[in-house]
Design goal:
The chain is an all-alpha fold. The chain has 3 helices and no strands.
Length: 52
């Protein structure tokens, strides 16, 4: 992340919120790669939301 990008993020989020967003992004990336590596089937969480 560039300093310019971080400065723009700080205009909208507190330091604690930036940490949380960073964690969530990292966790979701990990979970996606883990699921793909183990060929895990989708659990259908997005399907229900799209049917509404």
């Amino acid at each position: 992340m560039t300093d310019e990008c971080l400065a723009r993020v700080r205009e909208h989020f507190s330091e604690a919120e930036i940490v949380e967003l960073t964690f969530i992004t990292g966790y979701q990336t990990f979970a996606s790669k883990f699921a793909k590596a183990f060929d895990l089937a989708p659990q259908g969480f997005t399907g229900a939301a799209s049917r509404r």
